[in-house]
Amino acid sequence: MTNMGLLFQEWQDSVNSEAKNSSQQELILTAAVQYSPDVESASFLVDSIRSYLNWVHVMAYDYYMPEWSEITGAHAALYDPSSQFNTDYGIGAWIGRGLSASQLVLGLPFYGYAWTLKNPNYSAIGTPATGPAITDDGSMNYKDIKGYIQRYGATVMYNATYVVQYCIVGSTWIGFDDVEVVKIKVSFVKEMKLLGYFVWQVPYDDNWELSRAGMRCCTHFIYLILPDLHNTSGTLIQLPAF
User: Fold this and answer.
1) What would you measure as the largest C-alpha separation in the chain, in angstroms?
2) What's a Pfam family this protein contains (predicted)?
3) pLDDT tens string 31-70
4) Pair 110, 205: CB distance under 8 Å
């Protein structure tokens, strides 16, 4: 992680030099980071992030994935009373390590995951599962999840403990964020006084349904579309207007 801190410093020095020796404005420096500052073998250098980056995108999702998790899980849980794998804990850890809330941009997933239940008679969050369902890795975008629910007439259930929606069709269990969950998470962004939020990713939405839900919660925000290196669709970021 020491080398990462040096890299951030070199980037900032280059940005300052370019702006000083040209008519261009200073570039914005950001990084995508995991939900918590601590990783398995090291920790992010919060001092370097605070000093050299404008903000960080906190990837607050993929806490559980059917390819490796043997139980169904809320992959983007806002809260979890029995585990540290949740957004509230992660954001608190970043702030607790000294990073300002105003440098944190929260990631919202516009996709969910499908598991195959080991026993369809047991379907709560944390139920034993045998692996992915529907797709190779179990991932499904929000639009496809809605279509699946409509096709099979599935009943959607909300879990307020984790702040997640899920549905069951036979032995298939799907967890995802919907309009109400997005609203709650954007309210969390405001309550924590974070810089804003981003989504992964815009094309996964269904006719802008989730995007509009978030935007309606923020009447004094500006909206940026940042290009996605993997495709041309971009990622929506909302930042408070100054």
Assistant:
1) 67
2) Glyco_hydro_18
3) 999 999 987 666 778 999 999 999 999 999 999 999 999 9
4) yes
Which CATH number does the domain housing residue 183 bear?
Answer: 3.20.20.80
The DSSP bridge partners found for residue 13 are none
User: 42 lies in which domain range?
Assistant: 2-21+29-109+178-240
Taking the C-alpha atoms of residue 5 and residue 181, their distance in angstroms, rounded to an integer, is 35
- Residue 215 CB coordination number (10 Å): 16
pTM of model > 0.85: yes
DSSP state of 153: T
Q: How far is Cα of residue 63 from the mean position of the Cα atoms in its chain? A: 10
**Contact partners, residue 207, CB within 8 Å, separation at least 6:** none
Q: Calculate ∠ Cα 158-153-143, nearest 5°.
A: 70
